[in-house]
Amino acid sequence: MKKVFAIVLFVSCLATSMVAQDLDSLYARDLLTVGTIAPDLTDVEGQTIALEKYRGQYVVMDFWASWCPDCRKDMPQMKELYAQYSGKGVQFLGVSFDTTREALDNYLQKEAIAWSQVTELKKMKESKMAQAYHIKWIPSIYVIDPNGKVLLATVEIEKLKTLLGDLAAVHVHKACPCFDDRDPL
Predict the structure, then answer these.
(1) For residue 43, what are the CA distances in angstroms to 28, 95, 116, 120, 123?
(2) Which of 99, 103, 142, 174 is the most exposed place for a label (fewest CB within 10 A)?
(3) How far apart are CA 93 and CA 43, in angstroms?
(4) H or E element that contains 140
(5) Comparing C-alpha atoms, which of 30, 39, 68, 17 is closest to residue 154?
(6) Same domain for 5 and 82?
């Protein structure tokens, strides 16, 4: 009986692991490909927000909404990453699909989210930003490199965590003039 239980437990863990590893193949397959120039954003007034102002830095773009359970689940880890990497050549930018300013502002205040947010106050399916970035599932995360190109497109915050750790480990600041040797990632 113990052997059967152990086998069932092993298969269950393996299946869970495979599903977790497969989230991008399920939900991120239509995201922009690595190497694509990241499109500009649009705010609630319809004004263009040029990503060119972030050139020379890495940009973590988190597409999310306060009503999204998976987004709320990932938010503590995103806050930790922000605390660890912001100000070290990495900018964070939230792209919210909340439809009311009140809901967005209340969540930002309640969770003490300090990084910049962009919103059109439209449903995801109606959003120009969702269309430009091929967002069909949230949370979706992009990392834009210092040249404005997509470096990572994922729905898994663990992949973001790994990438930022890898960038720090290879002293990305030497390849990016926005870093100096006194303030490594």
Answers:
(1) 24, 10, 12, 5, 13
(2) 174
(3) 13
(4) strand 140-144
(5) 30
(6) no
Domain span holding position 10: 1-27
Q: How far apart are CA 36 and CA 57, in angstroms?
A: 16
- 180, part of any domain: no
Long-range contacts at 44-48 (CB < 8 A, ≥ 24 apart): 44/101, 44/119, 44/120, 44/121, 46/120
pLDDT digits (tens), the chain, 185 positions: 544 333 433 434 334 444 445 687 877 889 999 999 999 999 999 899 999 999 999 999 999 999 999 999 999 999 999 999 998 889 999 999 999 999 999 999 999 999 999 999 999 999 999 999 999 999 999 999 999 999 999 999 999 999 999 998 874 445 555 544 434 45
Q: Which amino acid is at 10?
A: F
Cα separation, 71 vs 60, in Å, equals 15
**CA proximity to 88, closest of 166, 149, 164:** 164
Angle (CA) 30-126-143 rounded to 5° is 40
CATH at 63? 3.40.30.10
